[in-house]
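Sample intake sheet
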Amino acid sequence: MEEDLITRAKHVLTKLNLDGKRKTVRELEAESTHPDFWKDSAAAAKKMKQMAALQKEVEDGEMLDLLIEDGNAKELEKAVDHFEFALYLSGPYDRNDAIFAIHAGQGGTEAMDWTSMLYRMYSRYVERKGWEAEEIDFTPGDEAGIKSITISVTGSYAYGFLKAEAGVHRLVRQSPFNADKLRQTSFAMVEVWPVFEEGAAIDIKEEDVEWEFYRSGGKGGQNVNKVSSAIRITHLPTGIVVQSQSDRSQQANRETAMKVLKAKLYEMLLNERKEKIEELKGEHKAIEWGSQIRSYVFQPYTLVKDHRTGVEVGDVQKVIDGYLDPFIDAILRKEKK
């Protein structure tokens, strides 16, 4: 068996910290036998779910240890590849569902068409992953395409995978909206946030929130505009504004809007921490429309290039059809190094 493969496997075992996980499982098992454990049923269920997940990780890790001893290189490599990728998705909210938004940037109608193309691309990716998507807010383009769209994505590790897509996406092609078929560059911004469980992470005071109720102007059938079911929330301390109009129920839109607000506040907290670290390091990089993370070129050649990792795919149509794995895999690996 190759020495490099064994080294990788042992590195994975070290990162898995099986002894630490076994200790946590024992502590949770002991806690679950306490007479008051199930008084708070929601908290108890969450801990039992955590214990089951840790037990599975321990069992899988022990199996990896056995494969090292057995010397089956093919099976060991498959297991190492699986575990290495799982380690890349070990952030505190990587397992969570996601809120995903796309906004048209520079380029007018062309950019709004590009936003609709990206929405189709991510819809295909979500389908391939077996996840579910639900529209939260939608603003159509002035002449064509989409000006802005926000969706919720439900599925295992949805945030962990999709967070790699946040940033500016650049399109280069011959414009179908220009009579001279001139080559044009357009931009769209992708934002991604984790969905938090009730009572988790972000605390929002009632007095810090201003509510507005209005009639939905989005999709939803002939009755959608008859009731003021759409919600707009303004978070007064930060000025963040979110809205939800996808559901006919005011209560459902209210809950969805609060999820989006919590996610945006979390992102703001993360950015403040990043800026502080960069300040201490003496580094600062401006984030602007020109600083694209990925370029999609249709003319004069076809190429999709991720500027963070250098990964390139020549079949641009395949990527637009939802083939994003090479890009997401590369950025997750890079961030964990």
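Comment: The radius of gyration is 23 Å. The mean pLDDT is 84.
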